[in-house]
Amino acid sequence: MRAPLARPQQGATLIEVLIAIVVLSIGLLGLAGLQLTSMQSNHSAYYRSQATLLAYDLADRMRANRTAALTSAYLVDFPTSSSSNTVSGTTAQKDRAEWLNNLALKLPDGTGKVEKSGTLVTISVRWNDNRGRIKATGDTTTPTETFVYRTEI
Q1: What is the CA radius of gyration of the chain?
Q2: Within 65-150, where are the H helices?
Q3: Among 8, 41, 52, 96, which residue carries the largest CB count within 10 Å?
Q4: How far out from the chain centre does Cα 136 lie?
């Protein structure tokens, strides 16, 4: 009598399928972590873009009102973030109040500083960048970012 011929294997075993699912799951988890980091970086970049535009806005206002800018009418030193600054007074006071209001509205805890040395103006914009923080550290202080723009008026 002849021995029955062994049939070749057809399909995959349950163990092979489970191993493939585990490998795929690990890869997808890595991709999800990468997506989270990317979103945090994009959020931080958005805030930096807003800070840049707001600093340029004040510089343009100062150039348009150059006489007042040269007499230090635009100087300010990081007041508490508030969107309720009174927009009244001279053009320089209105410009400064509108700028501080925009900082508070568009950036979390946004505030600014303007310094002048001759015709050189330094505009600093500071905000809380906690949502854009990528790596958690043991530091418990509030993570602030500062954008500094120097120009001549």
Answers
A1: 29
A2: 66-70, 91-106
A3: 96
A4: 16
